[in-house]
Amino acid sequence: QRNVNDIVINSFILNVEEIELEVDDDDATEGPKVSDIELEGPFVVDLIEDSSGIEQTLAEVNLPEGNYDEIEFSINESEDSESEIFEKSIFISGTINGSPFEFWHNEDLEFEIEFENGMLTLEEATATLINLQFDLNNLLTLIDLSIATDGNENGVIEINPSSEDGNSDLADSIIDAFDEVIDAFEDSFDDEDEDDENEED
């Protein structure tokens, strides 16, 4: 559970369709070369499961030794009719000023993390944890959920592209905020790489 002002988030679920690890094409080390690796999902990830915060293990895999310089995540609409987020790519639930709310969208999202200087070197047959970190606080500072209404008065504030409560524009604004947070997340890794290069100089 995450609480920001009067917004309480109880569940924050993503449908991660694929994770791709790309090798460093400029790797000059000796020995056999490895190829890009694709981890096929879907991985249904709750970023706030058991109040554990914003870090969620997506997969544990054995990867061959090599220098991987990029991880790319694809978040897509679920096609699994038995999934709790069927036909959704993201689902968030909680309360707004004490009233229950549910947000979902089916927008496709992608983001990638680039590692310079062989920062993501993995030893052969080593169980590797791939973690997705998401700054929920940043997301909630970019949008005003308090303007959402329970238009059909069914007791749940519904925020989605086809919202019967009249919150479809807000749903699109949340997705726009997602894009901003993802950009900042990617930039944070770029900044770390630049700092490392400056230290080497």
**Percent in helix:** 10-25%
Number of domains: 1
**Strand elements, count:** 11
Distance between the termini: 44 Å
What order do the SSEs take from the amino end to the carboxyl end, as H and E?
EEEEEEEEEEHEH
Mean pLDDT: 78
What report would you give on this structure?
The chain is of the alpha+beta class and 201 residues long. It has one domain (2-200). Helix content is 19%, strand content 41%. It contains two helices and eleven strands; from the N terminus they run E-E-E-E-E-E-E-E-E-E-H-E-H. The protein has helices at 136-141, 168-200; strands at residues 2-4, 7-23, 37-46, 55-63, 66-75, 90-96, 99-105, 109-114, 120-122, 126-133, 157-159. Strands 1, 2, 3, 5, 6, 7, 8, 9 and 11 form a nine-stranded mixed beta sheet that branches. A two-stranded antiparallel ribbon has the order 4-10. The protein starts with a strand and ends with a helix.
In short:
With 201 residues, this protein is α+β, with helices and mostly antiparallel strands. It has helices spanning 136-141, 168-200; strands at residues 2-4, 7-23, 37-46, 55-63, 66-75, 90-96, 99-105, 109-114, 120-122, 126-133, 157-159. It is built from two helices and eleven strands; from the N terminus they run ββββββββββαβα.
Q: What's the layout of helices and strands?
A:
Blueprint: E1 2-4, E2 7-23, E3 37-46, E4 55-63, E5 66-75, E6 90-96, E7 99-105, E8 109-114, E9 120-122, E10 126-133, H1 136-141, E11 157-159, H2 168-200
Parallel strand pairs: 7-11
Antiparallel strand pairs: 1-2, 2-3, 2-5, 2-6, 4-10, 5-8, 5-9, 6-7
